[in-house]
Every structure is written in structure tokens, then in C-alpha cells.
């Protein structure tokens, strides 16, 4: 049976991940998400958020959520600084930093899982001593 708290944390992480990405994308005023990118990026953001929520609820791991959150914050700040803050908004030639983050969500998920595994190993070693 699945723990109800773990299920709630996983669903909350998935909803938060997708909602944060969609909100940041809309607030930054960068070119709108087209349907193909949205169909790829929003489920990816949900998967990263769900993994972080599950890791926190079931294993008490902080690293996956922190890594995803810091990466997201840096991408949003970089996109804002480059494309929104200047008086004359440049036209993005390629993906913005937030766009790169949305495209590379499998890498973010993999790194978060590996970092969480590392945190778990360190905790096991510290508790074993």
C-alpha cells in the first residue's frame, strides 16, 4: 500500500513543478510556450517536482528538491536579467536560460536522483559511525 503522505507529497511536487514553470514562463514575457514544447516541458517539470516530493516524503532527502529549486531559480533570474530587465528587450535567438532548463529536464531529474543517492549514502555512513 502506498503511504498517503508520500502520495500527497508526490502529487504536490508534480503540481508545484508544472505550475511554477508555467507561471514563470508567463510572467517573464518570453515567447509563449508552443504546444509541442508545453507537451514536453510541463510533464517534465511535473516529473522533477514529483521526484523531489517523493524523495522528501519517503526518504527525508533534501538534495533533490534543493537542486531542482536552485536550478530553477537561477534559470528564472538569468532569463529575467538578460531578457526582461534591460530597457530594450533583446529578441532571443535560441532558447532562454529558462528554455534550456525546460529542454533539459531529463538531465535535471537524473542529477537530482544521483545527488539524492549520494545524500542517502552519506547519511547512512554518518549514522553507522
Overview of the molecule:
The chain has 5 helices and no strands. The protein has 129 residues and is an all-alpha fold. The protein has one domain. The longest helix is centred in the N-terminal third of the chain and has 25 residues, at 4-28. The radius of gyration is 16 Å and the shape is elongated. The mean pLDDT is 89.
Fold blueprint:
Elements lengths: L3 H25 L6 H25 L3 H22 L12 H7 L1 H24 L1
Assembly type of the chains comes to single chain
Low-confidence stretches: none
**What percent of residues adopt helix (DSSP H or I)?**
over 70%
Number of strands: 0
**Element-by-element helix/strand order:** HHHHH
End-to-end Cα distance, whole Å, is: 33 Å
The proportion of strand residues reads under 5%
Based on secondary structure, the structural category is mainly alpha
- Tell me, what's the shape? elongated
DSSP summary: helix tally? 5
The number of distinct structural domains comes to: 1
Largest sheet: none
| Alpha-carbon Rg, integer | 16 Å
Averaged pLDDT, please? 89
Amino acid at each position: 500500500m502506498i503511504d498517503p503522505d508520500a502520495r500527497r507529497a508526490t502529487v504536490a511536487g508534480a503540481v508545484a513543478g508544472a505550475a511554477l514553470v508555467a507561471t514563470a514562463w508567463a510572467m517573464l514575457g518570453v515567447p509563449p510556450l508552443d504546444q509541442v514544447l508545453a507537451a514536453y516541458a510541463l510533464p517534465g517539470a511535473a516529473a522533477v517536482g514529483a521526484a523531489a516530493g517523493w524523495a522528501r516524503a519517503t526518504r527525508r532527502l533534501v538534495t533533490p528538491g534543493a537542486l531542482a529549486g536552485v536550478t530553477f531559480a537561477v534559470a528564472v533570474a538569468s532569463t529575467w536579467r538578460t531578457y526582461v530587465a534591460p530597457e530594450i528587450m533583446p529578441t532571443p535567438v535560441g532558447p532562454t536560460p529558462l528554455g534550456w532548463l525546460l529542454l533539459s529536464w531529463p538531465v535535471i531529474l537524473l542529477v537530482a536522483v544521483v545527488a539524492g543517492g549520494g545524500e542517502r549514502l552519506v547519511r547512512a555512513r554518518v549514522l553507522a559511525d
